[in-house]
Amino acid sequence: MSNYHIKHLEEYWQVYRKSVRHPEHFWEEIAEEHFVWRKRWDKVLEWDFDTPIVKWFQGGQLNITENCLDRHLATRGNQTALLFEPNDPNSPAEHISYSELHQRVCKMANVLKSKGVQKGDRICIYLPMIPELAVAVLACARIGAVHSVVFAGFSSTALATRIQDCDCRMVICSDGSYRGEKILDLKSIVDQALEECPEVSTVLVVQRTLQDIAMVQDRDFYMADLLEKSSADCPIEIMEAEDPLFILYTSGSTGKPKGMLHTTAGYMVYTAYTFKNVFQYRDGDVYWCTADIGWITGHSYIVYGPLCNGATSVMFEGVPSYPDFGRFWEIVQKHKVSQFYTAPTAIRALAKENVDYVNSYDLSSLKVLGTVGEPINEEAWHWYNENVGKKNSPIADTWFQTETGGIMISPIPYSTPTIPTFATLPLPGVQLALMDHEREEIKGNQVHGKLCIKFPWPSMARTIYGDHDRYRETYFSAYDQMYFTGDGAMRDAVGYYRITGRVDDVIIVSGHNIGTAPVEDAINEHPAVAESAIVGYPHDVKGNALYAYITLKESGEDRNHDNLRKEINELIRSRIGPIAKMDKIQFTQGLPKTRSGKIMRRILRKIAHDESNQLGDISTLLNPEVVESIIKGAMI
Ligand code: WT7
Description:
By secondary structure, the protein is an alpha/beta fold. The protein has two domains: about 500 residues, 3-Layer(aba) Sandwich (Rossmann fold); about 130 residues, ANL, C-terminal domain (GMP Synthetase, Chain A, domain 3), CATH 3.30.300.30. Helices cover about 30% and strands about 25% of the residues. The chain has 20 helices and 31 strands. It has an eight-stranded mixed beta sheet with strand order 12-11-8-6-7-14-15-24, sandwiched between helices. The protein has a seven-stranded mixed beta sheet with strand order 5-4-17-16-18-19-20, sandwiched between helices. The mean pLDDT is about 95. The structure holds 5'-O-[(S)-butoxy(hydroxy)phosphoryl]adenosine. The site of 5'-O-[(S)-butoxy(hydroxy)phosphoryl]adenosine has 22 residues, from helix 11, strand 20, strand 25 and strand 26.
């Protein structure tokens, strides 16, 4: 039996049972056999979910880049580590071998050092999907700097908030980025953000699009100039197991984004382990995850998990629709991709197009398909299974979160029988619980409840950077001794899990988490707006679309509504980013409120779903009369 690589269902159950009975022993064996340590740990696990504290492999010392790079040099130095496929289909792909990647990481790490970066410093990375993004992430990790990657589709305000929140003094960005036919001006977004971030003293600029950009004297430097003078010899910084590795922001249901802090050893062990099993990666395979490294999926399953396993990981700069909707499949054919991992929203968008886009390419190299980010609907699942997998490649519907660091629920392809829309079974080491309204655990099968996790796993986020109270409050206060995920789930007759969606005020649009509060804050900034509430409603490509109910101030009542809608969406774009723009905006006389003044989003959600005949009892509202007028004016 192999604990590290599960190959059939019986083995899964054996490994799972062992991981629950003796979690510490289970993870210790894996940590020992499959990774390089500079010093062995003294204690496998210390935890309590009250404080909460979680520490894995305390006393252990290591560097994650030694595990991702150095240890592979002797055995697979010439093998491709990163396979970069550029936006332009006519530009050649770049095969970056393990030894070349090692060199590039060492050089960039030395550049960071030459600019004064020290262990523990936070570095903001705002780069498109080009190799330098992965190199920058690893360069930080090599010298013990904490990377905070901000998705390069976020606005300058969102970027500034994230830079300030974790006090970054350095930003690594590019001049611009290619997205299909568009060229985006990233450096000017950075410049604008930095007007609010006087603490940032250094900006390193990677040239990608070669457009004209402003360079601030003594602050901004071209990365290429510095790399040229930099040595390729950079010894690792020896890190403690629980030293911070990175911060990654995720939107919450209230207030500012949460900087989830991940640490070194547990994150490494768990992401490597889950990568191996969920994708059944074998030597020679070419693995492709289409996510952006700006999200947790990219951190864990483009960079760290694959590289720890010595895999070949594809990085794609472009979009699925350029030059046409066959691009994904053209890439699969060209690079003989064996594992393909994408999001339901991408599958739904592609399923709308002519199926010839898929059928024109040879996809016979595919062995495993994956999805992540939101529940996959049955239709999309079947389209994926039939047209992409030719009913021959199992689909891993993988459930996880920025907070969990790695995949928690997923079939093990070729072992776990799959059922559409079910993420199926917890991975080894993952102890799930469903909770009822009385905050008790629901035992048995064929039940539905709020999804919790009752035992620590190695890659869980350890805190919200700078706000441990909020961490406890958000994840550990709803249920005693449990981590609460914010999702609802059902467990079927055989124990399979199906994630039913968020139970808090987070709306998932095209796989992106949108917290209602920050978007409402942006809307409320408009001088004509008195109050707003946003809800999601079903959308056949995006999963959810956004619907805003807005009441205007008296001064705004005479304004042209279409102009107002444009201005409000523009405001959202500039404060958060284009992904958070509203699909529908309805101006109302008031918003339904409880007697304590809380907006009843449930009612607004029903109206947006065109289910206003199912509102239930609204007589306890403070202002039941507004509901009728909202229904009349609804934009459905
Ligand atoms: C939320 C986490 C995990 C990587 C990308 C999103 C939803 C994620 C699934 C899935 C149903 C899913 C959950 C979760 N989600 N994967 N396979 N089935 N829902 O990371 O931005 O932190 O979002 O995404 O609601 O809580 P994230």
